Amino acid sequence: MLRLHSRTPETWAQRLLPHVEELLVEQAHLEKKAASAALTFVFRYPDHPGLHRALSAAAREELEHFERTLALLERRGLEARRLAPGPYAERLLAVVRPREPERMLDQMLCNSVIEARSCERMKLLAGALDGRDAELAGFWGDLWRSEARHHALWIGLALQVFDAAVVDERLEQILAHEAAVLERATGTPRLHD
């Protein structure tokens, strides 16, 4: 399923349990960014209308997750606030080539890798919270399954536009780059650091 080149150790989730409130605030930001990424593709690539319906559905689902996160924050007496992002996305996206159509492919695959890493880490959080906080365990338990679908969606969309061998080769390169990005993690309590 997930073709990640590195694995997050289970101790990662244990280390972040004291920071779940901050992770929830980050989750709200991540859901907005994911919805924006899908809609950006709709606007940037109007000449690929075959992608638009799937991207629109993905954006709606990401916004539903955003609203669900906001409701969870409210129930816990927390506010969605500005949060300095971790360096993960910026470092990952440095691999995106500037010219089309390579840019389109790279962005699709980077989005897929972000979703895969989210899936892996949300599953770890759900497991670590099981028996400690049923609401949060269920929350991240539901979301990791969606992240897995979105990971596959971005790859599937890339395969609609690009040759499978090209997609596979570039995905392997981006996965290697992402593993290197994680080696430079700062230890900031973020889903993506």
Domains (count): 1
Quote the CATH topology.
Answer: Ferritin
Secondary structure tally: strands: 0
Q: Shape from CA axes?
A: globular
The helix/strand order is HHHHHHH
Low-confidence stretches: none
Strand content: under 5%
Structural class by sheet pairing and helices: mainly alpha
Quote the average pLDDT. 95
Features of this protein?
193 residues, mainly alpha, Ferritin, 7 helices, 0% strand, globular
Description:
With 193 residues, the chain is mainly alpha-helical. The chain has one domain (16-80, 96-183): Ferritin, core subunit, four-helix bundle (Ferritin, Up-down Bundle), CATH 1.20.1260. 72% of the residues lie in helices and 0% in strands. It has helices spanning 10-16, 20-44, 52-75, 88-93, 102-129, 134-161, 164-183. Helix 5 (102-129) runs antiparallel to helix 6. The chain is globular, with a radius of gyration of 16 Å. The model has no long low-confidence stretch (mean pLDDT 95).
